[in-house]
Amino acid sequence: MIFKRLTWELAQGTGLNPRQYGFTAQKSTEDALYDVITYAKEGLNSKMLTAIVSLDIEGAFDGAWWPIILRELGTHCGDQWLMGIVSSYLEDRNVTLNYLGKTVRRRTERGCIQGSIGGPLLWNLQLDPLLREAEGGSAQLQAFADDIVIMARANTTEELNRKINDALEMVARWGMKHKLRFAPHKTQAILITRKLKYDTPTFQMMSTQIALDNKLKLLGLTIDENLGFGLHIENVSTKALNLFKVVSRMAKTRWGLNPDILKTIYYTVVEPTILYAAGAWGSVATRVHARKKLDRITRAFGIKIAKAHRTVSTVSAAILSQIIPLDLRLQEQKELYEVKRGKTLPELPEGKLQPRAHPSILPHPADRKRLTFSLTKTEEDLTEGPSQGDTWRVYTDGSKIQGKVGGAITWWSGGEERDSTSFRLADHCSVYQAEMMALYQATSMAKDKEHRTVIYCDSRSSLQAVADPNSLNPIAVKIRENLEEALTWGNPIELSWIKAHVGLEGNERADQLAKAAALDPEKTPLYNKFPLSFAKRIIRARTLRRWQSRYEETERASGTKLFFRDVRGAKRIMERLGNRNTIAQLLTGHGGFKQYLHRFKLSNDPHCSCDGQTVETVTHILTECPRYGPERYACECAIDMSVTEGNFVRMLEDDGIRKHFVDFAEGVIRRAARQNGATAV
Questions:
Q1: pTM above the 0.85 mark?
Q2: 3 state SS of 422
Q3: How far apart are CA 53 and CA 45, in angstroms?
């Protein structure tokens, strides 16, 4: 409670330096890495020499000096009561050691208490003077907690030496003044450039020369000299493949972990490991060397999830397991991150993302009270509510119809509609945004009314966002401001959730108005910022188009292409089919068929025993082989369609036909495998 208030107080003044990314609201390691890589890329593209130096503070959190922290706190915080509490919190602390019956106690004035809620904030206060002092200098400093980075770029080695060494001297001087020791021998440095001829720079800190390396590991990302990130891909690929080795011992074709568990492991462990900080390095996903490394992981897990043979191609493994290839996921994550940073979508060049509000604009934590709203489910509930007399009943609604979005407000008094208004939102907006905007418009009008007002909304999620005092939805913040203003003026506004589409007159009227507004082309959109869900949907559609293009262009996966035209349809069908070995054999042609077995010298010849001349493939045994004629005839009678290669796609796409065809196919595949001495599970 204390440190929430302290954080709010700090944000109301000048605030802490924005170059501190650690323990800071709405900032992460990905933001820190993105800014570092962006700075380095600008130097690389300008053919300059760019140096990145990562500093190491010995015992950083243990060495934080309280007098400096309290001094900085006094500079930033105007609340003397909070100052007194924090001072008391740091006062009279001792370190005690019990050993062999002896107790030694020493007074301490250092350290951010390990595991404490306030430790991160106290550390940021300790480091803030350094970041402020570095502003305007020839080198750029930034920090994530105690990980400090110095960056500089120049056209000549001499200029780069001056910039970096001046910054190192300033940092060392600051450290001595604040009783923090930097470890020059643990400091890492890397030079990034496209120049072929240059003198090697020399960096020094406290008379110790800092060695240049060809790589630098920063916040979990390995940076190399040309920003190719080959070493990083190698590192994360090794982690993922080591996990695969463990998983593969527990997931066999006939027993072990089922595909759903394997997918959970893949999505919660493997993908996050690979995609970490994709915004910073995801641009390399289009390079051949990166794709080969990532395809190896996609294929390994895809085969295990699909329970397919190890010879199946990466394309087929990804389709059958329903996992998007990692290089495409990397591009997707990078594009999504850039949209969050303010980049426009090519599909919506004039649109902007609806950002979250910054916590600093919320009221003081002590003034944040959770609001309440009542529940109205029936006409009886409405009757038992506020009397009709001097009470305004306001009904709000949002609607999306035919891809258009609208909202409406209708005012009722004495059982009759007195007024109404409606509006349209941009087509890329969501129903949720329409509901929120309707609430905002209603509260904006109601706060000036002298009569009692009850607003009925059928979106419970919208009301919950408004009721939560810590919600950072920007529209919810404005609605709460309206409610507070109305309360201050003595015109309190009540909120109530009303059940939709149960015949309640006011709610049905608001719904009609919202639909009409959505379809009215004459109305100018009242709101046009798109939600993050829209960006995710657009970028995922872009990813699927890339995947589809790759699927169509590849010469591999010929067996899979017999059954699936596109990756979207394949995903829908595979969700219904599930993953098992017979399905994998059917959809890839890799299994207990003579052609496949002969390819790996497991059969003397590739020909089917029906005539000794026709090559035995999955297509042959399904459509032609007379040995399975009765089963084929029974299947054709059940589905009223011939089992031919040209009908494979239709038989899988049709929900009414699919089960009959798949049952027939799996039975035939098992029989063929047994006759050929192979297995099909």
A1: yes
A2: strand
A3: 20
